[in-house]
Design goal:
The structure holds 2 protein chains of 2 kinds. By secondary structure, chain A is mostly beta strands. Helix content of chain A is 0%, strand content 52%. Classes of the chains: A mainly beta, B mainly beta.
């Protein structure tokens, strides 16, 4: 089956530093990838839609300069949390939509970010 | 716009008894519907999906769901709960008008008592 990986699975950083999270589709090409944020005991909140070779589309209320998204290839999207603060601590999950199946997406295992 | 409502934030059952997790959706176009499970501190695992084929969809771990257009529902069921089923369950809808960007329900926490 289709596999999506995320790296790292867990990261702890100091306030003010930047953190990059990678999302890779391992056995399929994904023109579109999605980035979600999940607070404890809450649902997933869509942050942005990442399209290969073009700018990401951010949801209302999500700061573009804070959460930088790059989708440089058909198998890799990255989310960089810039100048992280404790309130950015969360579970970040990506998903990838196969180029051949627009009605399907596969989720990564998530990245737990803790900002001290 | 598409939307999904999970009617219960928590469902509590005894081991060996049936499970029913309710989901209602709103979609202007033929929707794709999904159920995902999330165990604590883990990612999402797809249980099953409906994409305009058979209305009764069988998934993994004995779960199934029935797409009822007249009721705009896609409830998740399992005949007999197991302790390992305790987790958070998300109903998700996507459709062509929404560019197949998925919309998540708020989630239902399934609690299984021994």
């Amino acid at each position: 089956g289709a596999v999506v990986s995320q790296h790292p699975s867990r990261v702890i950083c100091k306030s003010g530093t930047s953190v990059k999270i990678e999302c890779r589709s391992l056995d399929f090409q994904a023109t579109t990838m999605f980035w979600y944020r999940q607070f404890p005991k809450q649902s997933l909140m869509l942050m942005a839609t990442s399209n290969e070779g073009s700018k990401a589309t951010y949801e209302q209320g999500v700061e573009k300069d804070k959460f930088l998204i790059n989708h440089a290839s058909l198998t890799l999207s990255t989310l960089t949390v810039t100048s992280a603060h404790p309130e950015d601590s969360s579970f970040y999950i990506c998903s990838a939509r196969p180029t051949s199946r627009t009605d399907t997406q596969y989720f990564g295992p998530g990245t737990r970010l803790t900002v001290l | 716009a598409q939307s999904v409502t999970q009617l219960d934030s928590h469902v509590s059952v005894s081991e060996g008894t049936p499970v029913l997790l309710r989901c209602n959706y709103s979609s202007s176009y033929s929707p794709s519907l999904f159920w995902y499970v999330q165990h604590p501190n883990k990612g999402l695992q797809l249980l099953l999906k409906y994409t305009s084929a058979a209305t009764l969809v069988k998934g993994i771990n004995g779960f199934e769901a029935e797409f009822k257009k007249s009721e705009t529902s896609f409830h998740l069921t399992k005949p007999s709960a197991h302790m390992s089923d305790a987790a958070e369950y998300f109903c998700v809808v996507s459709d062509r008008r929404g560019s197949y960007i998925p919309t998540f329900g708020r989630g239902t926490s399934l609690i299984v008592h021994p």
